[in-house]
Write a structure and sequence with these properties.
This protein has helices at about 65-80, 105-120, 125-135, 190-195, 200-220, 225-245, 255-270, 290-300, and strands spanning about 5-15, 20, 25-30, 30-50, 55, 60, 85-95, 145-150, 160-165, 170-180, 275, 285-290, 305-310, 320. With about 325 residues, it is α+β, with helices and mostly antiparallel strands. The chain binds ligand 2P0. Ligand 2P0 binds near residues 13, 32 and 278. It is an enzyme of class 4 (lyase).
């Protein structure tokens, strides 16, 4: 069996992607900036010339919608490159699935990379990020390590990811607080469509350009305070958009709000930290290495049963066994 295994790490958006201008091409209405994480990743091997088309995740055959999305994605790439044939997608996910950490970011980045290897295509990282984008928007950024930006672009060729700094100096840590691992009720794809009905949606898009400029500056200046403040504002704005839709919705659970208060309290006590929250109830706390342990202790005291994973910067796409 050919080993085309690629490893991609997940990323957490500091300036978020929440809204599409083209759903089929996954062209976003805004640019986004993320931190690639070392603690969460997906390994995927695309095996060609099999008897049928299958998707295995963590050793088990996947059926239904999740499998259809993965298989039709590979078929789409095959069409793009004028190749065909059966295949198995064999993935190991080291990410809590659908728990608010975008496992789709590492999943489709790894799959795109494995596809390119399996068919021995000569594709740049920029090209790879465009292919990953067709599977899942956030996957565009997971091709790169450290801090990455996804330029929204105007068409498929101009909507790609790029590294801002793959080896940052900042000792930024992300503390992921996993409240529950239940499948979320509203997918990101659905949530983004619903968000368009919010009166705050257009202001949300208008804010993006300045936030991107400011976040890039915070990264370049190694300025954790500005980075944290901006990330927290941006996430709060995204969730405010959702609450104000025609059919209002929120990803927050009671514990989500409790953690927002905790972060604010810790800050008042001089422990500098900020929150960010994606399309799920889990809270990610941004802090620096020197305060990380104390913050985790405070989280455990408030919510003794939660799972906490701390993460630093992860690398960009890698091929295993090379
Ligand atoms: C992000 N999220 O920038 C934003 C913030 C969640 C909240 O990208 O529809 O799975 O497949 O392109 O990439 C998660 O959504 O969405 C996401 P699709 P994706 O990370």
């Amino acid at each position: 069996m050919m080993n085309n295994t690629a490893r991609a790490h997940t990323n957490i958006a500091l300036i978020k992607y929440w809204g599409k201008k083209d759903a089929d091409l996954r062209l976003p209405l805004m640019s986004s900036i993320s931190m690639t994480l070392d603690a969460f990743y997906t390994d995927t091997n695309l095996v060609l010339d099999t008897e049928d088309k299958r998707f295995y995740l963590n050793g088990e055959l996947v059926t239904g919608k999740a499998s259809e999305r993965v298989i039709s994605y590979v078929e789409r790439l095959q069409k793009l490159f004028h190749v065909s044939g059966n295949f198995h997608v064999i993935s190991q996910n080291h990410v809590p699935t659908s728990a608010g950490l975008a496992s789709s970011s590492s999943a489709f980045a790894a799959l795109a990379a494995s596809f390119v290897k399996a068919y021995q295509l000569d594709i740049s990282k920029k090209g790879l990020s465009i292919l990953a984008r067709l599977g899942s928007g956030s996957a565009t950024r997971s091709i790169f390590g450290g801090f990455a930006i996804w330029h929204q672009g105007q068409n498929s060729a101009t909507s790609f990811g790029e590294a801002i700094d793959e080896t940052p100096e900042m000792d930024l840590r992300m503390i992921a607080v996993e409240l529950n691992t239940k499948q979320k009720k509203i997918s990101s794809t659905q949530g983004m469509e619903m968000a368009k009905t919010s009166p705050f949606f257009i202001p949300w898009i208008h804010e993006n350009e300045a936030q991107i400029i400011d976040m890039k500056a915070a990264i370049e200046n190694n300025d954790f305070t500005s980075l944290g403040e901006l990330a927290e504002q941006n996430a709060s704005q995204m969730h405010a958009v959702n609450l104000a839709c025609e059919t209002p919705f929120t990803y927050f659970e009671p514990e989500t709000v409790a953690l927002i208060h905790l972060v604010q309290d810790l800050r008042k006590q001089g422990l500098e930290c900020y929150y960010t929250i994606d399309a799920g109830p889990n809270v990610k706390i941004l802090t620096e290495l020197r305060n990380s342990k104390e913050i985790q202790k405070a989280v455990k005291q408030l919510l003794p049963t939660v799972k906490i994973v701390e993460s630093g910067f992860g690398p960009g796409i890698q091929y295993l066994n090379e």
